[in-house]
């Protein structure tokens, strides 16, 4: 093995990252669905052959999948060792979306492929893509009132969709027989598989160039350094216990809020996250499986310390006590469609609210923290075909010690962006009548929160059913250090000219629409940071001149200006 000098280590690190980035790019460019091709709701990574631990992940992949794919790959390896899953061969690709086997919700479908060197598995490649439909009670899979996971769609344990490089027609037939607009899924499936094949080719070139042993030594060293870097950051935090709470509006079935109670204990070079005291498992789909709960903590710490490389080593100093008996440790058959998109962001919000007490100069006030899941499924008579449209939305980021929050940023859990309006209008029978910043939604503070998004979409023809699984409709994103909360999420459906607000504020399913009916959404603004009365008066006047706040709003929130 060649000597592992600093330059070689750096080049290998960048090369592994590039492999994942190219997988991400391949997946998006080849995918059929706008939610992947345009919104980039996907992620790719490289994982250890021994225990599935994360080696590298694409920089443009969803952060929430960092811990999830590590957990699911480890579960697959364990199942193979225990004989509960068919052993792999070269060219095999497993498909799995079972939430309880290291997943999120059913719409996040994972592919996992072994990479062989000299007849043995060197590592695993895995990716996750959000499929726009996975069957179940409602188009798009986001059932707001499901009480069992079977109502949410097709659940797949790890099975070989590709065997020795060829797609299994029987497995494919089972999948397409259980989902809507099935003929369009082949494009996403082939794109997802192609991304892994590209990754295998690029990774093999790196191994051929530097040698398997050298790359393995580099991976081990990179993991050690990531752990050391995270521990160094933790050492700078004062020992103690930092407590916070965050709330989910409701579970979609019982109209009562759910509480996430968090205590973060810092001792030496370790942080322990304890969710004891959180609400028990809920009836509706806002339960979180353990893989998503773990990943939510990891991604929150990545937001706080973004310089730490993405590696399993970065998670080693972070100990999350399993929150047994709470809705953050869902077991079969609890419904989970809201876990990845919504509950994960409430978990991250609780981490931010706790850690801002310890690191006020590094942690922001709460961001919008909702993916704004809006699914619309129906029939387009002009094109003589069914459709399932899935819209995600941005929102305001929280202010921080240095500046105001970003407006209409992507959700806490991802790099995903809203699909372009033009693409949505070309693909589905809809018209966006309004699409703009949601003025007045940023929380007041010395540095105010960013603004959410306001949009209104009209069904142009045919009939359809609308479903929403959003959050922050009851409680706005939390301000920090004296800052005000951001504005709450708002959903209004106009049917026959009559306005309808969902009983659970931003959760409801199967709302029938016909041509001319409209849906209006206002996403949350970010929380404010610091005493609003200390805000620079010139910045207040600028916000008013730009129409971000009315003069009356600004005077009430920030004082005379």
Describe, in short, the structure shown.
With 561 residues, this protein is of the alpha+beta class. 29% of the residues lie in helices and 23% in strands.
Summarize model confidence as the mean pLDDT: 96
* Terminal CA distance: 68 Å
Q: What's the gyration radius in Å?
A: 23 Å
Unreliable segments of 5+ consecutive residues: none
Instruction: Classify the beta-strand content into a percent band.
Output: 15-25%
Strand line-up across the major sheet: 2-1-5-4-3-6-7
Helix content: 25-40%
Query: Structural class of the helix and strand makeup?
Result: alpha+beta
| Helix run count | 11
Number of strands: 20
Number of domains: 2
| Shape estimate | globular
Sheet of most strands: 7 strands, antiparallel
Write up this protein.
The protein is built from 11 helices and 20 strands. With 561 residues, it is of the alpha+beta class. The strands form 4 sheets. A 7-stranded antiparallel sheet has the order 2-1-5-4-3-6-7. A 5-stranded antiparallel sheet has the order 14-15-20-17-18, covered by helices on one side. The termini are far apart. The relative contact order is 0.12. The model has no long low-confidence stretch (mean pLDDT 96).
């Amino acid at each position: 093995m060649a000597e592992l000098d600093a330059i070689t280590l750096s080049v290998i690190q960048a090369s592994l990252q590039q492999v994942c980035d190219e997988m991400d790019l391949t997946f998006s460019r080849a995918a059929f669905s706008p939610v992947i091709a345009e919104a980039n709701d996907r992620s790719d990574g490289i994982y250890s052959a021994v225990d599935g631990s994360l080696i590298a992940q694409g920089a443009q992949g969803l952060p929430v999948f960092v811990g999830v794919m590590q957990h699911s790959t480890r579960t697959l390896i364990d199942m193979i060792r225990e004989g509960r899953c068919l052993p792999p061969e070269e060219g095999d690709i497993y498909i799995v979306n079972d939430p309880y086997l290291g997943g999120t919700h059913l719409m996040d479908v994972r592919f996992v492929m072994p990479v062989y060197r000299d007849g043995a598995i060197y590592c695993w490649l895995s990716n996750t893509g959000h499929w726009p439909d996975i069957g179940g009670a409602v188009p798009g899979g986001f059932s707001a009132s499901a009480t069992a996971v079977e109502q949410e769609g097709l659940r797949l344990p790890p099975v070989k969709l590709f065997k020795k490089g060829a797609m299994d027609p029987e497995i494919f037939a089972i999948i397409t027989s259980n989902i809507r607009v099935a003929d369009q899924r082949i494009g996403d499936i082939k794109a997802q598989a192609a991304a892994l094949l590209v990754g295998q080719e690029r990774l093999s070139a790196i191994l051929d160039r530097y040698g398997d042993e050298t790359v393995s030594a580099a991976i081990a060293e990179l993991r050690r350094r990531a752990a050391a870097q995270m521990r160094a950051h933790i050492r700078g935090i004062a020992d103690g216990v930092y407590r916070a709470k965050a709330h989910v509006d409701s579970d979609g079935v019982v109209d009562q809020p759910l509480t996430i109670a968090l205590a973060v204990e810092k001792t030496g070079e370790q942080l322990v996250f304890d969710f004891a005291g959180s609400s028990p498992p809920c009836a509706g789909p806002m339960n979180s499986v353990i893989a998503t709960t773990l990943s939510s903590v990891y991604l929150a710490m990545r937001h706080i310390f973004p310089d730490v490389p993405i590696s399993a080593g970065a998670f080693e100093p972070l100990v999350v006590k399993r929150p047994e008996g709470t809705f953050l440790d869902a077991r079969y058959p609890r419904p989970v469609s809201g876990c990845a998109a919504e509950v994960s962001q409430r978990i991250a919000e609780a981490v931010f609210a706790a850690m801002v007490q310890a690191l006020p100069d590094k942690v922001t006030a709460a961001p919008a923290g909702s993916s704004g899941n809006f699914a619309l499924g129906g029939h387009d008579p002009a094109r003589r075909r069914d459709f399932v449209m899935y819209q995600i939305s941005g929102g305001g980021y929280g202010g921080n010690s240095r500046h105001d929050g970003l407006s209409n940023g992507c959700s806490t859990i991802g790099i995903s962006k809203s699909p372009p309006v033009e693409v949505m209008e070309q693909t589905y029978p809809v018209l966006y009548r309004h699409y703009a910043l949601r003025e007045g939604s940023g929380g007041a503070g010395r540095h105010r929160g960013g603004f959410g998004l306001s949009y209104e979409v009209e069904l142009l023809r045919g009939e359809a059913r609308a479903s929403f699984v959003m959050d922050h409709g009851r409680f706005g994103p939390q301000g920090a250090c004296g800052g005000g909360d951001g504005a709450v999420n708002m959903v209004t459906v106009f049917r026959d000219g009559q306005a309808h607000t969902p009983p659970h504020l931003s959760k409801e399913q199967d709302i029938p629409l016909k041509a001319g009916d409209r849906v209006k959404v206002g996403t949350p603004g970010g929380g404010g940071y610091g005493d609003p009365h200390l805000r620079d008066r010139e910045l207040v006047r600028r916000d008013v001149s730009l129409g971000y706040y009315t003069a009356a709003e600004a005077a009430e929130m920030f004082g005379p200006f």
